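FW: tagging you since you asked about this chain on Friday. Here's the raw sequence from the shared folder, copied in full. Didn't touch anything.
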Amino acid sequence: MDGNWGVYSCGLAGYVVKVNDDCESVTWYFDDGSGKDAKKHQSKIYHSVSGRPYFRARGLPIYLDECLRMTA
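HL: got it, structure written out here
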């Protein structure tokens, strides 16, 4: 993986997230821990009424301030 990726944990699995260069969208995929290649998706970044940035993955809001940055 290149660039700054983060993860939103769902226990043993989670969403792997990268904010794109335009800062208006994210690239994400769901890592279930099986080691299989996952399909990457694109989503627009929205802001809640309180100003928290989030995107929708599988219909669920994923708040960027709850994602943990991964380092190599």
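FW: Residues 6-69 form one domain.
HL: agreed, and The beta strands are 6-10, 13-19, 25-31, 41-44, 46-47, 53-57, 60-63, 68-69.
FW: great, closing this out.
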